[in-house]
Design goal:
The complex is a heterodimer of chains A (262) and B (301). Chain A is mainly alpha-helical. Chain A is built from 11 helices and no strands. Chain B is α/β, with parallel strands linked by helices. Chain B has 2 domains: 2-217, Rossmann fold (3-Layer(aba) Sandwich), CATH 3.40.50; 221-288, 2-Layer Sandwich (Alpha-Beta Plaits), CATH 3.30.70.100. Chain B contains 10 helices and 14 strands. Chain B has helices spanning 41-48, 88-98, 103-116, 132-145, 162-175, 188-194, 212-218, 233-240, 262-275, 290-300, and strands at 2-11, 16-26, 30-34, 56-61, 64-65, 73-76, 150-154, 180-185, 197-202, 205-211, 223-228, 245-251, 254-259, 280-286. In chain B, strands 6-7-8-3-9-10 form a 6-stranded mixed β-sheet, sandwiched between helices. Chain B has a 4-stranded antiparallel β-sheet with strand order 2-1-4-5, with helices on one face. Chain B has a 4-stranded antiparallel β-sheet with strand order 12-13-11-14, with helices on one face. In chain B, helix 3 (103-116) packs across helix 4 (132-145). Chain B starts with a strand and ends with a helix. The chains are: A mainly alpha (262), B alpha/beta (301). The A-B interface holds A 1, 3, 6-7, 10, 13-14, 17-18, 100-102, 104-111, 256-257, 261 and B 46, 49-53, 70-71, 73, 75, 77, 79-83, 85-86, 90, 94-95, 97-100, 103.
Chain lengths: 262, 301
């Protein structure tokens, strides 16, 4: 068994022991349910709170398509609270090993820095992607029940595009966690930059092509209108390159022993 | 096995922790790296265990750079910090696998190494519940597991209580028969028990490298030691005036006298004491302890 497998196995056992295996998917299931349920009951909620007088309810609220609702799950739930929760759950990914001395300790063994990092990124990405997918599917089940169905093809392609954005979130946070030593700084910096990327989508077509956060909007466009942006190929490529670059920078950083030792 | 440290230098922003340090360790030796706090001991151990890279110089094991010889090294950090959610067994399994030990070897090796450090019966307890001494012993277990030819220990007993210290010292005494050990310490009494060779480091420089016997012999200025019931200042003044007495040191009821020639002067002083009716409790020839020699080396030089 090589070191990569040993390290992945260790991460998975840790997910189980720290009960993250339970609460993390639950958070995304909760986020996934929120959007369709709130959208569905919004008119009744407004009616009750407003007392029914002098309020006119836009009838189009009721007429949302399933695609629109699921797209808002991605755009309003996963891309806001979801990103923050992913970042906060990952901020210690390398930092806690640096702080406890385990990183240095592990590296006194014949372990390649690459195996250590890829083990981390792989296990956490697979787990987070799984949680996001579960939340997404639950959201779809509610959407389809309360609104309309969505073609399976659009549904799965949108999810895959979104998971690429998640890949970038994971590798970027890993890089920040490698370079900085304070959890607060790591969380703040990662959240600010990632949400910043998400906010600037739509400002400039060129920026959109090189912005990994566009993957999320491409998915949403597909769900809403059934069409895929023509730049999607380049964006996928660039997102993959940027993710690889982030892991590479972490690798160089640790290999050159720039991380602080007590 | 041969470890060569060649002219290694490591600087941090404000200070040079290790300054042009060289030494060699041969197979089977047990070497204590002694020095005051902040002398660069931990940094040197980290340079040897390839946790840090030196700014200058190199560390070679059997002629090859240390970073290619990690399987041959067992490292015990100053505060071994394992994953608290792992059991002792899982920790050793994890560390062992990282060192490329096969499953079957681990199945045999883990119980062996646990019994060696006296942790049999604790294999399924979580490391988070371990005391400092138990963690240190688990740390030794993981350093031994892959049967390295060199074991590096950073302050293995400094943070332990007397019981834990005794346990760990006994274990080290046992394992030094089989491997080469380099350990750092600022408590010479501990090092004295296990190691024959001392390397003393101060401000990142090597200021002494000798066996314990050499060190004692070289600094052997025998003194006469009197313990008396009451201060007899007149007598102390009187012997201080003799021309063969080089130095008299009175602390409390203890008088230390340095003389020209122990063999000749011992009886003369004793007779003199009896003549003056000095009430003696104890009289002996006292050589300098290692601790005193260490203090002198570190403070004076």
């Amino acid at each position: 068994m090589n070191q990569f497998t040993v390290l992945v196995k260790k991460e998975l056992i840790q997910l189980v022991r720290e009960i993250k295996l339970v609460w993390f998917p639950l958070v995304f299931i909760f986020l996934g349910i929120t959007q369709p349920v709130v959208s569905y009951y919004m008119p009744s909620i407004l009616e009750m709170l407003g007392g029914g007088q002098g309020i006119s309810i836009d009838p189009s609220m009721m007429a949302q398509s399933g695609g629109e609702v699921l797209a808002s799950t991605l755009g309003s739930q996963f891309d806001q609270l979801g990103v923050m929760i992913i970042v906060i759950s990952l901020m210690g990914i390398v930092q806690s090993d640096k702080a406890s001395g385990m990183l240095a300790f592990i590296l006194t063994r014949p372990v390649k820095v690459g195996s250590y990092l890829s083990g981390k990124v792989f296990s956490h990405y697979v787990f987070i992607a799984f949680s996001v997918a579960v939340g997404y599917i639950v959201s779809y089940i509610y959407t389809q029940f309360l609104f309309t169905g969505i073609p399976l093809e659009d549904l799965s392609i949108a999810l895959l595009l979104y998971l690429l954005w998640v890949l970038f979130i994971v590798s970027f946070t890993t890089m920040i966690s490698t370079i900085f030593n304070s959890q607060g700084v790591i969380a703040l910096l990662s959240i600010a930059i990632l949400l910043g990327c998400r906010v600037i989508v739509g400002l400039n077509p060129f920026l959109d092509t090189i912005n990994p956060a566009s993957m999320s909007t491409y998915g949403m466009e597909l769900l809403v209108g059934g069409v895929l942006n023509s730049n999607v190929f380049w964006s996928i490529l660039i997102t993959l390159i940027l993710s690889a670059l982030a892991i590479n920078i972490s690798n160089t950083w640790i290999s050159r022993k720039k991380y602080r030792i007590d | 096995m041969k470890l060569e440290i060649k002219n290694v230098t490591k600087s941090f922003k404000t200070k040079t922790a290790v300054n042009h340090f060289s030494m060699e360790i041969q197979s089977g030796e047990c070497v204590a790296l002694a020095g005051p706090n902040g002398a660069g001991k931990s940094t040197l151990i980290k340079l040897i265990s390839d946790i840090m890279n030196p700014d200058q110089g190199e560390v070679l094991l059997n002629g090859k750079n240390i970073s290619k010889m990690k399987k041959e090294i067992g490292y015990l950090p100053q505060y071994p910090n394992f994953f608290p959610w792992m059991t002792a067994n899982e920790t050793l399994n994890f560390m062992g696998r990282l060192s490329d030990i096969g499953k079957n070897d681990l199945e045999r090796g883990i119980p062996w190494v646990l019994s060696k450090v006296g942790l049999s019966g604790e294999e399924n307890s979580k490391v988070g519940t371990f005391s400092g001494g138990m963690k240190q012993r688990l740390g030794i277990a993981q350093a031994l597991l892959h049967k390295p030819s060199l074991i590096l220990m950073d302050e293995p007993v400094s943070s332990l209580d007397p019981i834990g210290r005794r346990e760990v010292l006994n274990i080290i005494n046992e394992i030094k028969e089989e491997t080469t050990i380099l350990l750092s310490t600022h408590i010479l009494g501990d090092a004295e028990e296990i190691c024959e060779r001392f390397v003393i480091i101060k401000d990142g420089r090597k200021i002494e490298d000798a066996t314990m016997i050499d060190l004692l012999k070289r600094n052997n200025k025998d003194k006469l030691y009197f313990e008396i019931t009451e201060k007899v200042k007149d007598w102390v003044r009187e012997i201080g005036a003799f021309d063969y007495v080089k130095n008299v040191d009175l602390t409390g009821n203890r008088v230390k006298v340095e003389v020209d020639n122990i063999g000749l002067n011992k009886d003369m002083l004793l007779k003199n004491a009896l003549k003056n009716n000095v009430n003696l409790v104890q009289f002996k020839i006292d050589s300098e302890s290692l601790e005193e020699i260490f203090l002198k080396l570190v403070v004076d030089k």
